[in-house]
Amino acid sequence: MAIQIPEKIYFKIGEVAEIVGVKTHVLRYWESEFNSLRPVKSRTNQRLYRREDIEKALLIKSLLYQQGFTVTGARQQMKNPQKIKIDPPVTLDAIIDRLACLRDALHRAEDDHS
Question: Is residue 31's pLDDT more than 60?
Fold first, then answer.
């Protein structure tokens, strides 16, 4: 299941935090660690993220949380975007389907040995 980003030009930090699935302070920390994540600031100094910023935040989250990179390692990976492997999120339906296949394979193996 891919994450749907609403069709908007700018997003406030709270909206981005909800889409990405992290707290707002995490996004602010990532801004300090990843030069490529730089939302524009409004006249009132409010962060305004664009779609590409959200996509970068999702990539950073994948590198750190799913693929196990350190911040330094993730920063290195971001320098070579063509080498980045993004694992699709595992859904409950996918797990159930995989378990059903394994169950069926076990039943077939039992039938072959009887």
Answer: yes
For 84-109, letters b (16+ CB in 10 Å) and e give eeeeeeeeeeeeeeeeeeeeeeeeee
* Number of structural domains in the chain: 1
Q: Which residue, chain included where needed, has tokens 């077939």?
A: 108
- Tell whether 37 is covered by a domain: yes
Q: Which domain holds residue 42?
A: 11-85
35, 36, 1, 30: which is closest to 16 by C-alpha? 30
For 78-101, the pLDDT digits (tens) are 887 666 555 555 567 767 777 888
Give domain status of residue 67, yes or no. yes
